[in-house]
Design a protein that fits this description.
The complex is a heterodimer of chains A (683) and B (140).
Chain A lengths: L1 E10 L2 E7 L8 E6 L5 H13 L14 H6 L5 E12 L2 E12 L9 E2 L3 E7 L4 E3 L3 H8 L2 H7 E3 H7 L5 H12 L3 H23 L2 H47 L1 H38 L2 H20 L9 H10 L13 H7 L10 H55 L11 H45 L5 H47 L6 E5 L5 E7 L2 E5 L3 H25 L13 E4 L7 H10 L7 E6 H4 L2 H6 L3 E10 L9 E9 L9
Chain B lengths: L3 E4 L3 H9 L6 H14 L11 E4 H5 L2 H15 L8 H22 L7 H20 L2 H4 L1
Antiparallel strand pairs in B: 1-2
Helix pairs in contact in B: 2-5, 4-5
Classes of the chains: A alpha+beta (683), B mainly alpha (140).
Amino acid sequence: MELERLELQNFRQFRASILEFSRDDDYNVTVIHGDNGSGKTTLLNAFTWVLYGDVNFETGTTQLANEGVMAAASVGDRVEVSVTLTFYHEGDHYRATRSIPYQKEHPEDMLGDPGDATTSLEYGDGRNYESVNNPETRLEQIIPERLSSLFFFDGEDINELAETENEDRIKEAIRNIMGLTILERSIRHLDEVSRRFRSELKDTGSDQLTDLIEREDKIEAQLEQKRDQLVTRQERETDLEQRIDAIGEELENLDESHDIEEDLQTAERRREELVAERNEVEADIRSSLTKDGVLGFALPAIRETTADLDELRKNDLLGTGVSQEFLDKLLERERCICGRRLDEGSTYHERVASMEPAVEADGLSEHAVQTMSRLEFAETYYETLRTDLEDLVSKRRELNAKIDAQTEQIDELEANLASLESPELGQRSPAELQQEREQKREELKDTAKDIGRIEDKIDELEQEAMEIETEIGNAREEKAEAELIRRRWKASVETGDNLESSFTKLQQTVRQLANNTVSERFDSIAHKDEDDLHAVITEDFKLEGRKRVGDQDEQVEMSRGERQIASLTFIGSLVSIARQRHEENADAKYFSGGIYPIVMDSPFGALDNKHRSHISREIPKLAKQVIVFATDAQWNGPVAEELEPRAGMQYRLDFDDGEQAGTYPETDLVMEHEQVASGGASS
Amino acid sequence: MSDRITYERPQIYERLVKEHDVFDSYVDLFVFAAAVGFRQGLKRPNADGDKEMLWANISYTEIYETIAASLAYQETGDPEILSDEQRQLEIMGEYAAGGIELLANRFDGTGDPTVDLAEFVLEEGTLAQADAESPLGEVI
């Protein structure tokens, strides 16, 4: 994918702006700089919006329409908000557009009521164009959304990638960039093969086998459905959790609600702790019950039996003593049935060893003796159980009371929030935020329940599937022909399983590749500082800093600047791996690898000049086409020094904040500078 | 062929063992149910259930062995039964079938029965204690 142009119409502060991207090989950087708030983040969002309908604004898609245009519109007018992205991909030229009409509802309406979004995608050779029927699907194939966070990212994302809990992101990034590898292709082929065998089996096999296979088919279909459902719910869960956290932050930031919100969060944390404690107590109760709960009911029987047997024994009615076998067993175990140790050399050992076995022991008194001696233990266990259980039950009651008290306090605080109805300028009122939070929490609860249900169902189905598979695998077919097919089918399944495990190994291989690139590039920067700092991606997919201490590599904390550089080089390494594989798999049937641009928003953060310089030097190497946003402050100094010579296109954002009467926030995109190598742009 | 019986495993087993983890295994609940059944004087003839309980499952835990012996002795009054493991298992099975019915009725809700069960056990303990201590206990 090679970006050509981004056109914005009425999209937030951009009334009618056109951004052309540099497509030159040597001057491969496009720079856009402007003050904070001038629209850099908006431009970044324009990409994800046109491609996937996603934006990362606080206000979501509710404030997309350009205020000035809305103000000038009449009630009932529709303001068309649209973004168009043109790009090249695999030899075709594409034009993607997304637009939403915002209808002005009343004279002071600055937001407008959004209508339905329309997306369109056209492709052609420059002269003739065709429309794509499923634009969203095709766009997903060209640049999958799962990869979007790798190629459109802001300074925060870069920071996060290098944080300590980052291994999932890295694993995911690697998995995502792998796309469909040759291995996956083989796995797919094997899947097809085994499916073919299976349907042959269905036709030629016995009725019983056919039935089994049909049942398996049904279950597989259900499983796929349930798994999709699960993913959707889990994504929703994450969204909701994030939104709830965001609301909490908003409430903390408002003067009115700040104190209440803080108290609320403290109270909630306390309640969580108490609930966790209660869960522990309940677990302890369960453990006591399973071990010794039975004694409460069984002890009377044991007591009486013991008393009876004792009577019988006293009156010599119990039988004829213990056998030699019995004695030998005790000595071997080195423990008497009464519990005493019979260590060799001890008095007890001697006593038992010298006991006279009965000539004809019938085993009766052995059992009796055993039963009687165990009574003592039973009584002790039971005493402990009772005390423990009573303590636990009363502790749980106490905790319940405390939890109730916390809940009361929480309810009160929430009611307080709900009463703060007047909004601060440009913000929502605490009451509104609290209400939304409560709604989201309800939804979260429902979603969690759904997830539980779906997971249970999936377990059930997987269990069933396994059972049927075993049955099918074991079925011996009478007809030789059918038997042959069955064996072939089985073999293809097993081979598929083996390949799956190779897939995991490949993941590690890619990690190593990425690691090599990261280490190399990072080292070439760090060595200049005589820091001897290395960056690595560990086997657990963590991005970490390392220093050589003696003959060991020790993990070290990286500074923010170093973290950012490490993250950038990691992303760059993935991009180059993707390009490599793309170039190697010229006739790949499936999407595997690709050439991607990188669009990054302010990757310089609060870094010092030295690090800014380093990062700027890295940027052109990261991808074939790099688009960089920077603040004016960042642009000055080392960043401009490094990047200006490599910038094929350079823009400035002129921002009018709309504070003056009669004006509205608006950004003008001004081209400052354009250069191409004499070789010209690639096409 | 080692000593074994068949038994039925109604839904309450799933609930207490798998769903809420109150008992570690079906065997633990089986013995518990037998003790409860005995205390309450509830027996059911061994149904032709599709589940099997082996003596080996019971004898794995010492105290369970003792309970099996005691219940069987209390039932028959015959010391010979102390060495008849098959019979002990059968008697235990009958009491378990009776006891599990009581448990199923008593704990038939859907929530977590852990605390209810704890109180149930504590209650019984109090009664048992009273029995043991009362002079009448010897006579009754």
